[in-house]
Predict the 3D structure of the following.
Amino acid sequence: MYKIESKNVDFFYGPSQALKNINLAIKPNTVTALIGPSGCGKSTYLRLFNRMNDLIDNTKIAGQVIIDGDDIYAKGVNVDSLRKKVGMVFQKPNPFPKTIFENVAYGLRVNGITDKKFIEERVEETIKQVVLWDEVKDKLKKSAFELSGGQQQRLCIARALAIQPSIILMDEPTSALDPISTSKVEELIYELKTKYTIVIVTHNMQQAGRVSDTTAFFYMGELIEYDTTKTIFTNPKVERTQNYITGRFG
Amino acid sequence: MSHLDIELQQLKTETIKMWTLVNLQLSKAKEALLKLDKDLAREVILGERRVNAWELKIDRDCENIFALFNPVAVDLRFVLAVLKINNNLERTGDIAESIAKFVLNVNTDFDKKLLEITRTVEMYDGALFMMEEVLEAFDKLDTALARKAFQQDEILDDINVKVNAVIADYIRNHPENIEPPLYLISVIRKLERVGDQAKNMAEEIIFYIEAKVLKHRSKAEKKKE
């Protein structure tokens, strides 16, 4: 049973086709890296999984995106429930202008949870999960903006985890971070895959190699090659993949 | 051409230079052996220092490429292959040196008949031919040529296996001349190792170009691949 499947997916921004007939299946509790040059469609593809592209005018999707066996673009799908199940972390850390505690508690509160003790426990548990607790436990009431970029990004991951999704989407989550913060987030990704299915867009080839189990290479809206990360980085089958990962892209 | 391409090209050029030097060392050692030319043998022994210096340089260059460029796929396989070929070349250089050292120790010319029946010259030429062909395969990225080394190595192995009986027979018939055949048997053993090194390098070339691992495969399996 696959966690995520896309079948014959086409996607259009107005008249321009951004994704062409994408077929891909992702197993649960794995990390999948989406790689490819800018404009290849990898972020568009990532945003299909929690219907973020719905927020953009004049877009159109064809084909099926199936999560846990259900087509998430079928009529009557509750998008809020989908987004609870599919969390997202963005390129730049984007904490809310609230305290550290409230950033993580926010998702719980908007989902109607009011039990103070429950919220406190969940916030602590989640901040511990992203290995940030020791760094912030004494300043939970301070603004999230007081944290470093790397800490803010881990807080954003905690915010995504607090509502207990089963899939986490990451769109270049470390591109704005220094090497130490990057390494902490990468370690975290490795830990998190025991509980979650993770899909990550990255421009950093070494990062894709370090964190992912499978890698998909996109080029001009097409899925060129999808295989284990080990195969993609040691012996890719398609010449265009090899040219891209070795930096010989024309 | 990218920066990495330039580095890889340079690494290839250096490896070819080292390889050419090692082949020259082997040829000189052959001439020294057959003519009992002690001066030439000393030249080979001195030349071994240059082989060692190349080995260190190529090791360091591979390390730098790994650290600075994080090569992947075909580039990674190339640097890994060069690293191992470098090791094989250094050992082949050692063999040339040790043959030259024999020449310094031997005091009488080799009996022509003894050279003929032990097939020493044939074996030496076979080993040199293998080294040249595998070098050409590396330069021209020709895996078909690299594969020829596997057949050639079988010929060297055959000579090596049969030489024991030939030498034993010779010693029985020439008990007054024991030393030269004993030296020759050592030379033949070393040439058999040259064949193995050349075969290992051929396997590395195939790994680099075709991503196939042929190490520790049987002869029949290698032919299929």
